[in-house]
Design goal:
The protein has 310 residues and is an alpha/beta fold. The protein has 2 domains: 143 residues, HUPs (Rossmann fold, 3-Layer(aba) Sandwich), CATH 3.40.50.620; 137 residues, Riboflavin kinase-like (Elongation Factor Tu (Ef-tu), domain 3, Beta Barrel). It has 10 helices and 14 strands. Helix 1 links the parallel strand 2 and strand 3.
Length: 310
């Protein structure tokens, strides 16, 4: 996937979807698949640079990873500066989408707004189709029995620790990606060495606690158990994630890994002693192992049923 940042580009034959794509949830995925399905055009995700200080379900690097996995051919990360904020909607379509991107197809949600004071909408995009020679697909908000599927709703579910529901609305397990760094190595001393993940400051985290997870390293997945939090028993630390990877003993310091979250096990707490912590970690490890075994058996049964139907 080609990643373009800034204003200096000149493209051809773009099929584009525009949006924040925070989380790249089921609604976003529907838009992006519409873009991908346009024949002989380059599927393009157009998003603006994220504001600093605002937590994100997925960081830019994580978003890049998801878009690449979906099959998007090109991502544009556009600067949201004062000049762009003040640009009239029609001028944005002409100068950016038509002249810079050679847009042939646009796919957006029916509530999409753009340009100065958010005056641009799908009605303007419809009106400009003939003038600029593109087609438009306007998609209503995706809903389920609980309402509109949105990043705001997913954020609330994250704050409540409802990870299975978060994953359902995302269309894939919530994950964090980062480089493995050195910690205090207390896990190693307790026969439970962990990979300490360096988490970006603007990454939105799940509630502090222990989770059944999977880790992807060099394209291969391993069962794991992960703690998100500040490790209150052993000292004062900034919030982060540390993962015990089951049946794994390789040196991965400095490597970039992905940690996928599946099941909440328990909240983070401060223990009275290191011995008490060590005992609880052993229980967490076993709880996660049982969860993974159940999930593996469930997947195996589902695979057999699918084969029989075929």
């Amino acid at each position: 996937m080609e990643i373009i940042t800034g204003l200096d580009f000149k493209l051809k034959n773009s099929s584009v979807s525009l949006g924040k794509f925070d989380g790249i949830h089921l609604g976003h995925r529907f838009l992006l698949q519409e873009v991908i399905q346009q024949e002989n055009l380059v599927s393009t995700a157009f998003t603006f640079e994220s504001k600093k200080g605002i937590s994100k379900i997925y960081t830019q690097k994580e978003k890049d990873c998801i878009l690449r996995g979906l099959g998007i051919g090109r991502e544009i990360i556009f600067p949201f500066n004062d000049k762009i904020k003040k640009m009239a909607p029609k001028e944005f379509v002409r100068r950016i989408l038509v002249e810079k991107m050679d847009v042939k197809h646009i796919c957006v949600g029916t509530d999409f707004r753009f340009g100065k004071d958010r005056e641009g909408d799908i009605h303007l995009l419809e009106k400009l189709q003939k003038e600029y020679g593109y087609t438009l697909t306007a998609v209503p908000k995706l809903t389920d029995e609980m309402g509109i599927i949105s990043s705001t709703r997913i954020r609330r579910l994250m704050d409540s620790g409802k990870i299975s529901e978060v994953n359902r609305l995302l269309g894939a397990p919530y994950f964090m990606m980062g480089r493995v760094g050195h910690g205090n190595e207390l896990g190693r001393k307790m026969n439970m060495p962990t990979a300490n993940l360096r988490v970006e400051k603007d990454k939105k985290l799940l509630p502090y606690g222990v989770y059944a997870t999977k880790v992807k390293i060099h394209g291969k997945e391993y069962n794991s158990v992960t703690n998100i939090g500040k490790k209150p028993t052993v000292g004062e630390y900034s919030a982060g994630a540390e993962t015990y990877i089951m049946d794994f003993c390789e040196d991965i310091y400095g490597e970039t890994i992905q940690v996928f979250f599946y099941e909440f096990i328990r909240p983070e707490k401060k223990f009275n002693s290191m011995e008490e912590l060590q005992c609880q970690l052993a229980k967490d490890k076993e709880t996660a192992r049982v969860y993974h075994e159940k999930m593996s058996a469930h997947c195996a049964r589902a695979s057999v049923l699918t084969s029989k139907k075929a």
